[in-house]
Amino acid sequence: MNIRNTEHFVIHGHFLCAGGNGSHAVKLVAKMTVRGWLRSESNAYGLPFCIAQSPAEADNCPEVHAMMHATSQVASDFGRPWFALTVAFALHVFDEATTGFLDVYNPTVIAMRARYAWFPMPTFGFRVWLVALIAGVAVCFGLTPVAARGARWLRPLAWFYALIMFFNGVGHTVFSIFGRTVASVTFARPAPGFYSSPFLFFGSVWLILRLWKTVPGARARETAV
Length: 225
Description:
With about 220 residues, the chain is of the alpha+beta class. About 55% of the residues lie in helices and about 10% in strands. It has 9 helices and 6 strands, in the order ββββαααααααββαα. It has a 4-stranded antiparallel β-sheet. A two-stranded antiparallel sheet has the order 5-6. Helix 3 (about 80-100) packs antiparallel against helix 5 and helix 3 runs antiparallel to helix 8.
């Protein structure tokens, strides 16, 4: 069948339906730009398609369902920004470990506890602190394939991860400007961990924007419009 003479195109769910004289329907991936005519014999767009006697029959086409699943994964993935932020996280750990971060962090925690008994942050020995952060970086790298698949259960953790790293980067910058964390804890500027802070900032912003863009249901709303 050649549908060069297709009369109209209408959006149907997540797919583009091509209707001819009313006797057939071809369903292709949504938001694909269609110009001129479609060729069914050679599948000019390189995509699975289904020829059916009615839209209801086309809904049961296995090729269409497979493409819908693949398209949904691509549309909701946040693997690249997650990976980029994790690289920035690893650089930040190295930066802090080599610039004396704990020499500022531990006295700050002690000062905050003296002022606010409820202050929850612990103090750390260097080895325990470094091992914990390396383990955290390894876990984040290990979750990259899951982020690339756009797993919904990972999204809340991704938001938390991005926001923590965003404020971490901002905090190092602010402390560098003031040259202290609290009144009793001063240091020579810039603050330990400052040099890797821009990477945390840009990586976290990228992940936040990607998560926002791929909020579940966003594609359905876009298609409906």
